[in-house]
Amino acid sequence: MQEEKILSDEEIEILQEIMNISFGKSAADLADVIDTHVVLSVPFIKIMQVPDLPAYFKDHVKEYKTISIVEQKFWGRFKGDALLVFSSGAGRELINMLQHDESSGFESDPIDILERETLMEIGNILIGACVGKLAELLKDVVTYTPPMVVVEKNCSDAITEGQYDPNNTAIVLKTDFRFDEGDVSGFLFLITSHDSVTWMKEALRLFIEQYE
Amino acid sequence: MIKKILIVDDSPIARKMLKSCLPKDQGYEFTEAGDGREGFEKYKDLKPDVTFMDLTMPVMTGYEAIEAIMNHDKNAVIIVVTADVQMKAIKTVMESGAYMVLKKPLKREEIQSALLKVKDTLQKA
User: Would you call B49 an interface residue with chain A, using a CB distance cutoff of 8 Å?
Assistant: First the structure.
């Protein structure tokens, strides 16, 4: 299926603006928890066949030796998979940043558990706020699976063939981010399938109608 | 009096949304720019009464464009319209001389009350 046939240029632009607003909300929520500023990029939307996803994903994380991933599935009328990808060492860097908070009580836990829990918490905030805001703007309500964390994974097998239905089409919404302090950067990928497209087109139309 | 309005945002949809929130009966003249650099160039050409400025943009960010405009014209009225509502972002742009910050998605009443405030400020100046 050609990408032009799934969403028009205008629909992609609307979705991009909604993603921009949504990730802005999640960055602000995170900045309330960690005393840092999250530098955001212009969101990017790409529509592709599912079998092309692993190569696309690999290409975007190739600058990192390893990555940590927080994954949460979400479903409502808008449904899909959120993958929050952090650069190598981000988990430990985040622990250092959070330890400025005296009440963290981190000292007693082994580092790998702390790393996992920290990534899970940060991921939960970023994904929840972003997907939640996106759904809210499109008048939907979503529920989530608990976050799953993979720490320091090799980039080449982060997304594997067969992880998603190969007959499906993926709409990838991607935002890059970088923390002002600490060496932490990464991407948020939202992968939704064309099952959501009919609803999404109507939701995008209703959203922009408010401004016409 | 407000006549010339410059809207700087990389998203054509965001520019359209902003324009739709402004009253249609005031005879405003709109000019648009798709990034901070183009915004700065158009500012110098047009000297708009009010500039609406996004922050996250390619080529030149809104932060850089605000600094460039304020260095060029310390009386510029720049209203930041952004999805980035982190405290540090707001503090930075206000310290750079922005007039106020409005959060995306825009609401008609917020933007209209912002313009009333600008009119009031310009009348007192």
Answer: no
- Residue B38's domain spans which residues? 4-124
Arithmetic mean of pLDDT, A160-166: 76
**Distance (Å) of CA B69 to CA A97, A186, B60:** 35, 32, 12
Q: Is residue A205 within 8 Å of residue A83, measured between CB atoms?
A: no
Answering whether pTM is above 0.80, one says yes
CATH number at residue B74: 3.40.50.2300
In angstroms, the first-to-last Cα distance of chain A is 31
B82 contacts chain A (CB < 8 A) = yes
CB proximity under 8 Å: B 3-32 to A: 10-14, 16-17, 20-21
A107 confidence band (pLDDT: 50, 70, 90): low
A134 confidence band (pLDDT: 50, 70, 90) = very high
Task: Identify the pLDDT of residue B54.
Answer: 96
Split into its structural domains, chain B has a count of 1
Mutation target among B13, B17, B87 for the A interface, most CBs of A within 10 A: B13
pLDDT tens, residue by residue, B47-67: 999 999 999 999 999 999 999
Indicate yes or no: CB of A24 within 8 angstroms of CB of B82. Answer: yes
Of the partner residues A13, A31, A137, the one whose CB lies closest to the CB of residue B105: A137
> What is the fold, at CATH topology level, of the domain defined by A3-209?
Chemotaxis protein chec (3.40.1550)
**Per-residue pLDDT tens for B2-22?**
999 999 999 999 999 999 999
Helix (H, G, I), strand (E, B) or coil at B71: helix
HSE on the CB side for B115, CA within 13 Å? 21
